[in-house]
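Crash report, auto-generated. Payload:
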Amino acid sequence: MSSTHTHSKKSQSLTKNQRIVLDLLQNSGEPLKAYFILDSLKKEGLNSPLQVYRALDKLVELGKIHKIESINSFIICNNSNCASNTAFTICERCGKVKEIKNKYLTDGVSDLVKDNQLEITRYNLEFYVLCKSCKIN
Amino acid sequence: MSSTHTHSKKSQSLTKNQRIVLDLLQNSGEPLKAYFILDSLKKEGLNSPLQVYRALDKLVELGKIHKIESINSFIICNNSNCASNTAFTICERCGKVKEIKNKYLTDGVSDLVKDNQLEITRYNLEFYVLCKSCKIN
DNA sequence: ATTACATATGTAATATTATAACACTTAGAG
DNA sequence: CTCTAAGTGTTATAATATTACATATGTAAT
Ligand SMILES: [Zn+2]
Ligand SMILES: [Zn+2]
Ligand SMILES: [Zn+2]
Ligand SMILES: [Zn+2]
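Recovered output after restart:
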């Protein structure tokens, strides 16, 4: 090994708390609430709400997760790069959330914004739907 | 006057609590928080959070006001009929909120939704901007 | 290695936002 | 009038989020 430890990639420089919160959201795939995260990670050493909220804030800032405001929950980012523009479907019946990947839709919205000269820095789109399993029942 | 008292128009059938909450939001024009509304209407006889939340819930249901989830606030509906589809700009610096009236934008989004066969029941669009006064300073 | 700085941590206390439970009242339909 | 749905008033409590402050850690320059 050379003397320069080049493996300290910036993208991997999450702290312990940030890492365990991110891992939980990653493994879950669903939106999780802050206090649920806290309960789930008690055994990993998280003791207070603030530890969770600080990790969540940072991860949102880094674009690795998103907050879904209408349900006070956080979800892993499903796209490679949202540039802090987000779009979700939310089932009105069961609350299930999915990040929208449809590039045509998001590009279309971006175009509309440009056409209207709205000087928007970012957007959050929440589409309410009836999900497949709720439609059946 | 005929014996049928037809002046009990459904659209005016708000209860006292619903009416005073709606009036406050109407007069303000800004997004207000539930507990601010409570404080403001103490003198009108509102004593508990529930009285406010119940009135707000009903007014949202009637489409007369909207909730802006990301700031836990409520604002009077600025349009004649949103059909529960909403779109707002939110200033990232000062938090100022405006309901978007731009029909081209909202219709455009509706078209995108149709084109993508997304079967959406309603949507909420939050566009983050830098408002005029914040841009100057 | 020492310093300086920015960032993160741990902890307790507290603030803010929202709902549950229950007894009672009112308005409108038939 | 009687019945019912909706609304009210009140107390207590749950759920979500932040303030404050002392301590620790990572990074880079000296
Ligand atoms: Zn994303
Ligand atoms: Zn569903
Ligand atoms: Zn509206
Ligand atoms: Zn502003």
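Post-recovery validation: The helical segments of chain B are 16-28, 34-40, 49-61, 103-115, 132-136.
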